[in-house]
Amino acid sequence: MFENMRMENLTTPFETFRVVTYNADQTKALYKNKPMQLITGSIYRGETVKEEWNDHCDVYAVYDGMTVGIWIGSVRTDYSVDEVMEQIRRKGIDSLENYMAAIKTRLEKQDHFRYTEIEFIKHIAPELENQMWESRKVFAENQHKKRMEQAAQREAEDQAFIAAQNAEAEQTVNKAMEILRNGGKLDNDTVTFYESRYEHSSYSIVNYLMRKYGVNVPIRTQGWINEKLVSAKIENGKCENLQYYKAKGAQCSQKFFDCMNELLAKVNAENAA
Prior knowledge:
With 273 residues, this protein is of the alpha+beta class.
């Protein structure tokens, strides 16, 4: 009859029923008298709650022969009756018979139960109350265990990622060290070290090595190395020449040669020790 009608357009009269619902922060089940309209069968909708974007209403089940109903949830009032009832049938709460079958299935699965569901069961099958509390407890424990396992897995994956990235960075450093010791073209590549998956520090390889060996490089020269230096050619323990980006009016940093040769001297002294 009302299948294609929107919830906001229902014309059935309002009735008042006593229902099990929640307090404001959903930490306690309460009994309240609520005005509501019949949707179909045992399912009712509450009064419209106006909001800036989408109005909504609460949905209740008041099963035949019961003096108390239960709050099911909240839906947008622009949903059709058919959309709402499809969700309710899928959850198995459209009739008392289906509701009880769903409860027993969830108990077998050790599912989570709301406070409202546990309070409501007192009116239908009070012998299931303790089982529902136990199921809720086991579910919470399993969820906690699952979260801990997932956190451990993420930590292991993060550590593996950090180790792989830092190993790659160390390989770049070791390659540069070989060039400093034996000569060759040292490309001023960027090397990145990770403290965590989301925290890392990046350096030009030349600045990194100068810092590592305690070479005092002026800030301006560090900037030139970062922004301009492309590569340096090492021969006989000295920096013989280099390549750098030439902007208009840009000049080669003369201080760089002093710093680079100091670095080479320290590396070679270490190698000779």
